[in-house]
Specification:
Length: 299
């Protein structure tokens, strides 16, 4: 006995429903992988490259490293419009893995300035994760890597002060020097570690003494204990330390006078300049303690 009309109608409706559910999946293009989009980004037409740069913002995070490195290559080499899109895409996906950004930053050369700036911007916005990872790089065997990390840490300000302060006691001399330099570069934001820097300024090596004193002179040049230490180091056995001490002593007194008078006291500055003129001519020989290392972190 055949199916009734109502049964046939149910089967027809069921078939229509199945087709309506399956049809969109059959008609829509399949989801592309990150590798496919990266292929378009590097070898496609101008329109394909732009589309790929946008699309890579939404790729699976399993392909994050591959995607981010590809976008950074474009950021440093493509035409300006595509660069801008790739830069924004990289900026959006990078915060998903701060350790990866630190690793990429660590491997960039001085010529990769645009990519370096992008990585720095991402890391500066995530200090709670980035500082600890950068502190580890300060002990890296590569002088370039150590200097880059110290330079970036100096820009974090308060979040990096305590970790850098702990490095002043590190067994690695290079780590101690870079920590002192980075803290000095922060200026008055590093006031809390002045005591630790005073201890380093009495270290056995002249380079540590000088670097610590220069940092103290930048953080608080007019501090009484900074002046006392600078006065003591005027008799240091190392010429460069004596030069640094003289500069710190001079700048310290000028700063104290400025604070007392509520502004620059030109007469006092002139008087102090004359008082120190003979020593400056004898010791400095047109030596600028900061420019001696190009203003860069020690190695």
């Amino acid at each position: 006995m055949g199916a009734s009309r109502s049964e046939r109608r149910c089967w027809v409706l069921l078939g229509v429903g199945i087709v309506s559910l399956a049809l969109p999946a059959l008609l829509l293009p399949r989801t592309r992988t990150a590798k496919e989009w990266i292929g378009d980004l590097t070898k496609g037409s101008p329109e394909q490259r732009i589309t790929a740069a946008y699309a890579l913002r939404h790729c699976d995070t399993d392909d994050l490293e591959l995607t981010l490195r590809a976008l950074l290559r474009i950021v440093g080499a493509a035409e300006p419009h595509l660069q801008g899109i790739a830069r924004e895409s990289a900026r959006q996906i990078a915060p998903a893995d701060i350790a990866l950004v630190v690793d990429i930053f660590d491997g960039l050369s001085a010529e990769d300035e645009v990519s370096r700036q992008l990585c720095e911007g991402v890391l500066l916005n995530r200090p709670e994760e980035a500082v600890e990872l950068l502190i580890e790089i300060v002990g890296d065997p590569s002088a370039k890597a150590r200097q880059s990390a110290a330079h970036l840490l100096s820009r974090f300000g308060s979040p990096a002060v305590e970790p850098l302060g702990k490095l002043l006691w590190d067994e690695n001399p290079s780590s101690r020097l870079l920590a002192a330099w980075a803290l000095g570069a922060m200026g008055e934001r590093a006031q809390s570690v002045l005591g630790l820097l005073r201890a380093l300024a009495r270290a056995p090596t002249a380079l540590e003494r000088r670097t610590a004193l220069q940092a103290m002179g930048t953080i608080d040049p007019g501090h009484e204990k900074t002046l006392r230490l600078a006065d003591a180091l005027l008799q240091d056995e190392a010429l460069e330390t004596r030069r640094a001490a003289l500069l710190a002593f001079f700048e310290g007194w000028v700063t104290r006078l400025d604070r007392k008078r509520g502004g620059a006291n030109l007469e006092a500055r002139a008087f102090l300049g004359e008082a120190f003129a003979a020593d400056l001519a004898r010791l400095l020989d047109d030596f600028d303690a900061h420019a001696a290392n190009g203003g860069q972190p020690p190695r």
